[in-house]
Amino acid sequence: MKTLLKKTYRQILNWGDPNYQEVLSDDVKKTIQELVGIPVLEVNLPTFLPGEKEVVVDRKIQLPPKYVKEFTEIVGAENIKTSDFDRAKHAAGKFYSELLELRQEKVTTPPDLVISPNDESQVELIIQKCNEWKIAICPQGLRSSVTKGIGLPDGGIALDLTKHLNQIIHLDEESLTVTAQAGINGPALEKFLNQKGYTCGHFPQSFEFSTLGGWIAAKGAGQCSTGYGKIEDIVLSLKAFTPIGIFENESYPKAAQGWDVMPLFIGAEGTLGVITQATIKIRKFEPNNRRNACIIFKDFESAQGSMQACIQGQFGLPHLFRISDHEETEVAFRMKGFEGSFSDKALQAIGYKPNSRSLMFISVEGDKDYTSLVIDKIKSTSKKFGGRSIGSRPTKKWLSQRFHSAYMREPLMDLGLMTDTIETSVMWKDLKKLWKNVRTYIKSRPNTVCMCHISHVYENGANLYFTFISPTDKSAPLEDYQQFHEGLVNTILSNNGSLSHHHGIGRALSPWLKEKIGENSYQLMQGIKSIIDPNGIMNPGSVINESNK
Amino acid sequence: MKTLLKKTYRQILNWGDPNYQEVLSDDVKKTIQELVGIPVLEVNLPTFLPGEKEVVVDRKIQLPPKYVKEFTEIVGAENIKTSDFDRAKHAAGKFYSELLELRQEKVTTPPDLVISPNDESQVELIIQKCNEWKIAICPQGLRSSVTKGIGLPDGGIALDLTKHLNQIIHLDEESLTVTAQAGINGPALEKFLNQKGYTCGHFPQSFEFSTLGGWIAAKGAGQCSTGYGKIEDIVLSLKAFTPIGIFENESYPKAAQGWDVMPLFIGAEGTLGVITQATIKIRKFEPNNRRNACIIFKDFESAQGSMQACIQGQFGLPHLFRISDHEETEVAFRMKGFEGSFSDKALQAIGYKPNSRSLMFISVEGDKDYTSLVIDKIKSTSKKFGGRSIGSRPTKKWLSQRFHSAYMREPLMDLGLMTDTIETSVMWKDLKKLWKNVRTYIKSRPNTVCMCHISHVYENGANLYFTFISPTDKSAPLEDYQQFHEGLVNTILSNNGSLSHHHGIGRALSPWLKEKIGENSYQLMQGIKSIIDPNGIMNPGSVINESNK
Q1: Best residue of A170, A173, A175 to probe chain B, by most B CBs closer than 10 Å
Q2: A142 has binding-site annotation
Q3: What ipTM does this complex have?
Q4: A121: in domain
Q5: Could you identify which of A224, A230, B52, B461 might form a hypothetical disulfide with B427, taking C-beta atoms 3.0 to 4.6 angstroms apart as the criterion?
Q6: Where does the chain bind substrate (chains A, B) (predicted)?
Q7: How far, CA to CA in Å, does A412 sit from each of A8, A331, A403?
Q8: Using CB atoms and an 8 Å cut-off, which of residues 367-426 of chain A contact chain B?
Q9: What CATH number does residue A213 fall under?
Q10: Taking the complete model, does pTM exceed 0.95, yes or no?
Q11: A414: domain range?
């Protein structure tokens, strides 16, 4: 006998496998209890806003039936979803307020239909119809946006590219490129490439639940971006369908053909068109040549100094290059049960003290002599900054668990903890000040954990990635978050940080964009949008949107 | 007693110091005589179109006197030039047909005035006035464009940035950047940086007579771009004055702030606005760590194979990385008097034969262990392709004479030789075919020297740079060139080459742009131009121009 599973909000808001629930270990619980002051070890707290009810979408489908009929004729009934659960699933990404709303059993930005086109010609037809009928389209990959990039405030079509437009098109082993459809997910693309002896080198934190098209649309960065580059450095060409037609360019290693309009689609977050395919760089996959190291510093400033000296040292680039500030290091040590161990005591004895020490993770790929040189150089540079190599095991472990942390968000939110991240990029000259002032802002909330790492490193600056865990105001969790988030963004901007290094703008950061880039650049962005999308149907309300939705 | 020097066409068309004349050595003359079939050793040929007359510009200044008066009030009389010679000097760049026209004593695209603003506020005022009065502006650095990027077919203002807007604004030794005004020339910028222990790493062939603003406007590349990147990889931020106002961005190592409009000014060739300043990356200048090598291969295919294997080898990047095809190698050997020497005979004896062998030049900068590793890897990779290291001297010599070849153009043209270059970029998969077919096209002209090198190298492809020397049809030299050039561009495009890797489009390649990038991209370019420059005053006729002027 078949059991029909209840389709809940919880299944939508969970990261990864909707049925998987992460259970916090005792070490994690103990750390939370100590740092955030919430009793989780002895007391069995009730789950905060569990979202276990069956999904009901209040806003009914508002598209006229004749439109639905036409779309059905284009893609076939099997490629259109209309259930409340499916509409809710395609209504939002993973921004904190979106997760809160799902826990509160609210679906505020549902599409009318979820359509999965079979091929590019259907994408073209759907856009033409939507443009004619002024129906909004939100192009979607695996919806891991953390900046409210997904959603249709006034309804429309969620255009799902993952069901059919997910194929490898061409592997060019001479020029080292792969051409694939935008809906292919990270693991499928990487698996194909690894089998052929290559890697795409792009591993965002959302890797398992992200797509090629999403990487490009959000201008993402992978964990190994210091060596392999951000997605804008990796994409060679792309194809995008827009209300005014198809945009497609040829691949060149570089060119000078006037002002290049194709990069406009990188970082456009679906507001200019639907990216259907792209050609990206690939590299030889030589895991046996990989060299890993982990170095501990006495404080974050020393780790930063070493990182800066390395990246400006002109001796080649590591691929993974990451430092955690003292609090992130402390939390990691506690959560992994390292604190108080024999090794910990040994480190403390030689001056690497809790609440001050800072970890650096390094992984270098490529030719084996090159990987040795870069690792050795980083180690010797680090020594000058008081760094001490603690072997390659912590980094190997980090690599093996690299996509796990996302799974901890739900159990932490279950405890009523505001659990979120924010990231920015900044020039080296402003980095220390930004870190200090943003940290001070976050720590101004009582009982708040504020962890920071630098994970994308450049000669001229780096990103800063903050994670915070803080008891929420359970009576008004959304308002509590919004107020805190607004101050946080303002603090970043007033300390010369960018609005985002690799998450994009979406609707979460759009209210700050005009001020950030200036009136003229903003108007030019609007002008470009008006040319490509004259009826404003492409992911409306995202990126270019001065009101805070 | 002062002698008033006659101001001739010749002084304008000469490369470098207008009074300097390169004299061809006997080895060069002998090579020309043998390869092009023109008797230059024994016979004293009359100079072909010497351009020694005093400059007279037929088109008189057409701006109403009240406008001239207003401009004079803005910048002062000492910053406005109106003589025929000055107008002719600022009327064109160094495209072959422009040089021919000067030799024919024609000035077809003169400005009415040459204005040198004192500061940015004057740039702003001048653009405002020109926009109001619909007067064209051609922003100018040192006018080394080889794609007809300079010129005012219907008159207007040549806006010279080199006289006053040539200062260093700020050196940031923490973030490794320098901010400078656009009119600073290459040597001045590099000298400043070297004194502080840095390098800009950007050395285009025109280095001595090029400016920061020109590098950016033309999307240029330097001889060390394989290591340091093209200018679009080096620029972090810029400031541009346009008819609708000022565009300026902040420097970030990378960011994801929606679709980024500021890169549109890179490669816009003055058609969107006037770049007045930019912040670019700098690197530590460590000439003692530099490692040079020169390797000879039995043929160009082997050199290509080795170059591709090196750049895809993931062992770091050389900075200068350059191979010459068999004909360029042959001509260099002959012109330098190497052919027939003892060393030549030794090389021939072990299989490196004339008319087949191919040279590779390498220079690596940075950390000393890194430079050793990269040089060693290139040498060992080259061995697999039959390459033989012939020491570092040829590369050192090449570096010391790196900017000389431009001076040979005039004496060659004096002989009635069509002497020009064209460059493109192409993916590795198409590179061999493009080289072969373009070469075949060029060699279809009787008695024509066709030399090719690859000098900007990427994991996914490279540029190809062709130089040709060919007896011109002296009865119709311009028509002869135009017909040949058109077929040449068509051949490049039909072999999957880009319109340009680093020279840009100008008016010389603009007729091909729409077909190359497609109708929609072209219309979007036009749309962007209309937003920023609604009256079409910025360098009109360049880049976006379907007719061949």
Answers
A1: A175
A2: yes
A3: 0.97
A4: yes
A5: B461
A6: 409
A7: 19, 14, 17
A8: 367, 369-370, 373, 377, 425-426
A9: 3.30.465.10
A10: yes
A11: 406-508
